[in-house]
Specification:
This protein is mostly helical. The protein is built from six helices and four strands, in the order αβαβαβαβαα.
């Protein structure tokens, strides 16, 4: 016969209560880790803005995420291959290194801001974020615990690690950055319109060839 007070192992009601407690503790831990992950993304974005954008901040988030994509494409253009990485290395070494740098000079990194009114730029941020995640996530061996982190965090840390090893690209002047952003916006809209046209044609039963992808126009050639 089971003995022990209710709520204890073997006691009446213990299994149910323990299960609820474990579930609640797990949910609390997941929320804590997710919140910490969001703060880590903000820190990572501020460091990328500091390293990639020449002018003083604050900088809108779409500009920073686009600059990170350009940095990655610059590395690819130089023949740099993405090595196999682990979530443990990226968080315990790369992210920890950023925390140490930030503590040494807490006011040296610009703020990164989000404007709720810039809908086209918000869509562009999502578009480029998907590109970064798709390009880098497959090279990262992530633990189960890393599943609660924001999807963009580990790929951004991977870009930082690659730039640390192979060199940071030249910071673009403001006019260069704006020209690149305009070209990227135009490329994204063209790509979306082509996809919508192809989908509409397919629904009408008269499929037409898709126009050439504008993917590579996200990063126009660097100005000499």
């Amino acid at each position: 016969e089971a003995c022990g007070p209710p709520g204890s192992p073997g006691g009446e009601g213990g299994g149910a209560e323990d299960g609820k407690r474990v579930k609640k503790d797990g949910e609390t831990l997941s929320r804590t880790l997710f919140s910490a992950g969001q703060q880590a993304v903000e820190l990572t974005m501020r460091y990328l803005a500091h390293m990639l954008i020449a002018r003083e901040g604050p900088h809108p988030v779409h500009e920073v995420i686009f600059s990170a994509w350009q940095a990655f494409e610059s590395l690819e253009g130089r023949g740099v291959a993405v090595p196999a990485l682990t979530s443990q290395f990226l968080t315990s070494v790369v992210l920890r290194g950023l925390l140490v740098k930030q503590q040494m000079g807490p006011d040296s990194w610009p703020e990164v801001t989000v404007s709720p009114d810039d809908a086209p730029y918000h869509r562009m941020s999502q578009h480029v974020t998907q590109r970064i995640v798709a390009s880098l996530a497959r090279h990262i061996d992530a633990t189960a615990e890393a599943a609660v982190l924001p999807p963009i965090l580990l790929p951004l840390l991977a870009i930082i690690e690659l730039c640390h090893k192979h060199g940071w690209p030249r910071q673009l002047r403001e006019e260069e950055q704006q020209a690149a952003l305009v070209a990227a916006m135009a490329a994204m809209l063209e790509e979306q319109q082509a996809a919508a046209a192809a989908q509409g044609a397919a629904q009408r039963g008269c499929g037409t060839p898709m126009s050439p992808s504008a993917a590579h126009a996200l990063s126009p050639p660097q100005t000499p």
